[in-house]
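Here is the promised in-class demo. Please do not try to memorize the tokens; focus on the logic of going from shape to residues.
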């Protein structure tokens, strides 16, 4: 009797062992490289603080197509801003030439110069030293540098700050409600990441920041030196003046220069 029971139990065990693998459900496989964004139906999804229809940069599978899309989207705004700066610079140079001849600016010229000086945070005394100083601030930023900082700071347009606030350059602001609160903001910190209602406003703010903030004085000095030597304003030379832009310091500069050199084929398309 016991022998029969033992045989029955042994047979049942072997049958269970054979069937067990087929009783298990496959576990889902996760790809660590894939980052999915919340679906439109997610109730807590952040709504954009703008009405701009952004390309869905995160959906591009081909790297070259993604870069083309990103550069084609940002480049016109960069070129427009540089054109505006060149026009402002031309007015300053013209005014400086008039003063060097011991002549006076007319009312319209004086008004234009005052507006430029105010915008760039320069005292509004219209004389030769002031205008000479203003010319150090009122100058172009190579589009190669602007495009690569935009790509770097916004993860090629896919970051939360770019999508929700059109902030492609990681610019901060310091009044409550001026932008988006960083999810990993240090306890006690009060800064926000600025939000813009247009891409042009975002680019313009970046230009003004680089051309006026004390942290980028070295960049402006390098650019002025290139001007004085009648040399081209090269992006990879100006990056040395961006040491304060990122806490990564030297590593950030090397990364920007590498990105500039690797993406030259896309800048003028």
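The designed amino acids, position by position:
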């Amino acid at each position: 009797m016991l022998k029969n029971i033992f045989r029955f139990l042994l047979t049942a065990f072997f049958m269970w062992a054979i069937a067990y693998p087929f009783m298990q459900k496959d576990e889902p496989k996760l790809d660590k490289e894939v980052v999915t964004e919340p679906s439109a139906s997610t109730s807590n999804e952040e709504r954009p603080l703008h009405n701009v229809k952004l390309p869905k940069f995160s959906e591009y599978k081909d790297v070259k197509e993604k870069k083309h899309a990103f550069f084609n989207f940002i480049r016109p705004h960069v070129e427009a801003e540089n054109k505006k700066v060149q026009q402002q610079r031309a007015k300053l140079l013209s005014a400086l030439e008039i003063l060097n001849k011991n002549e006076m600016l007319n009312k319209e010229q004086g008004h234009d110069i005052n507006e430029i000086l105010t915008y760039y945070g320069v005292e509004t005394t219209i004389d030769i030293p002031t205008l000479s100083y203003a010319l150090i601030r009122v100058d172009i930023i190579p589009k190669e540098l602007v495009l690569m900082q935009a790509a770097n700071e916004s993860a090629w347009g896919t970051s939360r700050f770019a999508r929700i606030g059109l902030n492609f350059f990681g610019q901060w602001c310091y009044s409550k409600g001026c932008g988006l609160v960083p999810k990993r903001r240090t306890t006690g910190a009060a800064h926000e990441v600025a939000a813009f209602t247009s891409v042009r406003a975002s680019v313009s703010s970046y230009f003004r920041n680089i051309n006026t903030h004390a942290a980028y004085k070295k960049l402006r000095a390098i650019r002025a030196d290139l001007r004085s030597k009648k040399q081209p304003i090269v992006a990879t030379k100006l990056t040395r003046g961006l040491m304060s832009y990122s806490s990564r310091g030297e590593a950030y500069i090397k990364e920007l220069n590498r990105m500039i050199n690797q993406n030259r084929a896309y800048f003028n398309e």
